[in-house]
Design a protein that fits this description.
- The chain is an alpha/beta fold and 328 residues long.
- Helices cover 35% and strands 13% of the residues.
- It has twelve helices and twelve strands.
- Strands 8-7-6-9-10-11-12 form a seven-stranded parallel β-sheet.
- Helix 11 links the parallel strand 10 and strand 11.
- The protein is globular, with a radius of gyration of 21 Å.
- The mean pLDDT is 97.
- The structure holds 2-keto-D-gluconic acid (8YV).
- Pfam families: 2-Hacid_dh (PF00389), 2-Hacid_dh_C (PF02826).
- InterPro entries: D-isomer_2-hydroxyacid_DH, D-isomer_2_OHA_DH_cat_dom, D-isomer_DH_CS1, D-isomer_DH_NAD-bd, NAD(P)-bd_dom_sf.
Length: 328
């Protein structure tokens, strides 16, 4: 590798310490406004960068990759999910693609567990009562949510985050069930007392809570279609902290409208940052603005992971978090 510092273009503001380190190590170009780059700015960025550091708010599709300059060598994503990147096109053009797995696992699992608790125990509704001064005194039948202990949680996608959620769920007395492309090891199943379902539809129709924790791919697009939503039991709580595209959001809004679900907790949306209006302002729907990895620690660790990947590449080695199409 040449002694010239790599031109590393960041599409968004990252934590201060990450940006400072990037400036020390690379010819780093920061986005000081923090507004997402529009298409023209993104095209300009891939025309001058050696390394692009995008986030989920950038669409890195085949067309953009085709417009990149000869010098672009690497796309070092700030985030674990790479569904906004056409990895096949990038790798086909000889680019290295990396992500930041592992460092946001516990935080995202915390958020999924928080949504399960918030929806089942009506925490947001209760907080609104207090904020609006509507608490008129305790009554035996008012604001009753649903018990968690002993209920069945079905986790769709038993990767790192799914497993981290299962550990938390066990502590709350939930029975863990899961569906995954591949069955996890017997040791993990035993640790989590997790029951594997080969057939997703069968699992869905028997759960009390369903949490989506799988990546967005062509195969998982609208995994929760109108038909699948109809398979859920009417008392089910549906949680999504993975990707909005996993759910047909219009179908979900209709199901909520017809009281076909007891509650919903969403941190991600099909057309982010837009949210289907039918889901807004519903007492049994808790919506969060994509906060899964939003802790100071996780965002710092994600930045450190990006730096590690770029440094390793700069030193002529294989970056630890390389993503190849076969992994998706
Ligand atoms: C990130 C996420 O904040 O890492 C992911 O895949 O969904 C988020 O928690 C976001 O992707 C940053 O690019």
């Amino acid at each position: 590798m040449s002694a010239r510092k790599l031109k590393v273009v960041l599409t968004r503001r990252l934590p201060d310490a990450v940006e400072t380190r990037m400036r020390e190590l690379f010819d780093a170009e920061l986005n000081l406004t923090d507004a997402p780059l529009d298409r023209t700015a993104l095209i300009e960025a891939v025309r001058r960068a050696d390394v692009l550091v995008p986030t989920i708010t950038d669409r890195i599709d085949a067309e953009l990759i085709g417009l990149a300059g000869e010098q672009l060598r690497m796309i070092a994503n700030f985030g674990a999910g790479v569904d906004h990147i056409d990895v096949e096109a990038a790798v086909g053009r000889g680019l290295i693609v990396t992500n930041t797995p592992g460092v946001l696992t516990e935080d995202t699992a915390d958020l999924a567990m928080s949504l399960i608790l918030a929806v089942s125990r009506r925490i947001v509704e209760g907080a609104a009562v207090m904020a609006e001064g509507r608490f008129a005194g305790w009554t035996p039948t008012w604001m009753c949510g649903r018990k968690l202990w002993g209920k069945r949680l079905g986790i769709v996608g038993m990767g790192r985050i799914g497993q981290a959620l299962a550990r938390r769920a066990r502590a709350f007395g939930l029975q863990v069930h899961y569906h995954n492309r591949k069955r996890v090891s017997a040791a993990v199943e035993e640790e989590l007392s997790a029951t594997y379902w080969d057939d997703l539809d069968q699992m869905l129709s028997r759960m009390d809570i369903v949490s989506l924790n799988c990546p967005a791919t062509k195969e998982t697009h609208h995994l929760m279609s109108a038909e699948r939503l109809a398979r859920l039991q009417p008392h089910v709580i549906l949680i999504n902290t993975a990707r909005g595209e996993l759910i047909d959001e219009a179908a979900l809004a209709e199901a909520v409208d017809r009281n076909r679900l007891a509650g919903v907790g969403l941190d991600v949306f099909e057309h982010e940052p837009e949210v289907h209006p039918g889901l807004v302002g519903r007492p049994n729907v808790v919506l969060l603005p994509h906060l899964g990895s939003a802790t100071q620690e996780a965002r710092q660790d994600m930045g450190d992971r990006v730096i590690l990947n770029v440094m390793t590449f700069q030193n002529g080695h294989r970056p630890p978090d390389r993503v190849i199409p076969a992994m998706l």
